[in-house]
Amino acid sequence: MLKNKTVFITGGSRGIGLAIAVRLAREGANVVIAAKTSEPHPKLPGTIHTAATEIEAAGGKALPLQVDIREEEMVQAAVDEAASTFGGIDILINNASAISLTPTLQTEMKRYDLMHHINTRGTFLTSKLCLPHLLKSDNPHVLNLSPPLNMETRWFAPHVAYTMAKFGMSMCVLGMAGEFKKQGVAFNALWPRTTIATAAVQNLLGGDGLMRRSRTPEIMADAAFHILSRDSRECTGNFFVDEEVLKAEGVTDFAKYRVDSNLSDEELMPDFFL
User: Fold this and answer.
1) What is the CATH number for 163?
2) Which of 23, 108, 263, 272 has fewest C-beta within 10 Å?
3) Would you say residue 66 lies in a domain?
């Protein structure tokens, strides 16, 4: 289904983005990693080059491109190179994201701007620039890693700036799914039921204790694979949750995704916005 399809992923040098990239590479996809990290970071694992190595080891073709998705010219150049290298773009995964779980008075405007420029504007920009190529694909998909639009005060009050920026990605799904439905371009969102063991969880949210109560990025990767394998004309405008996607595919045992196999699913930490 995904063999020789070209996937453009933002921020895929580590974590959930990398897990999705490797999963799709196992199906024979061409994967474009458009991310900022080209040199090793002292606190974060992985670069676009180590990601490319993993993608190729999994059986796919990789194109690592250093891209800051806040810069329109860089994104356009990356999209052009991806399309010219592989003959088009079939799937876009808007994975790049910035997070700061700070209340209003503790949120510096440079941090506010960073989240909105990467999460909302970056998603809109990359979608806009990939669309001319997606419109030529026979089963085009855009998947945003963003939450259901759950308009409850409790999800805004503790960190309104982050919630606004993250929901901006989800509003792109809502709007673009309707805008491009007749042309057959699918726009969907995917969000985890539990926290996922990533650098953000380790460094920003809860350290080792929260990591133990999380699932691995592979659950998001498997869910993404199933969504992207569906007919784009039939599967659009959805706000998917990883666990629900896999249950619909017949998965009943989620033990393999737990970081700590001694914990039960009930002991895992639910993610935001659900």
Assistant:
1) 3.40.50.720
2) 108
3) yes
CA pair distance 45, 37, nearest whole angstrom = 10
Catalytic residue among 8, 86, 112, 162: 162
pTM above 0.90, yes or no: yes
- 273 inside domain: no
Residue at 1 is within a domain: no
What is the number of domains present in the chain? 1
Could you read off the pLDDT tens digit of each residue along the chain, which spans 274 residues? 899 999 999 998 889 999 999 999 999 999 999 998 888 777 777 899 999 999 999 999 999 999 999 999 999 999 999 999 999 999 999 999 999 999 999 999 999 999 999 999 999 999 999 999 999 999 999 999 999 999 999 999 999 999 999 999 999 999 999 999 999 999 999 999 999 988 777 666 667 788 899 999 999 999 999 999 999 999 999 999 999 999 999 999 999 999 998 899 899 999 989 8
The verdict on whether 162 is a catalytic residue reads yes
Q: How far apart are CA 47 and CA 59, in angstroms?
A: 19
How far is it, in rounded angstroms, from Cα 156 to Cα 30?
38
Helix (H, G, I), strand (E, B) or coil at 9: strand
* Residue 180, in any domain of the structure: yes
Q: What's the domain range around 120?
A: 6-267
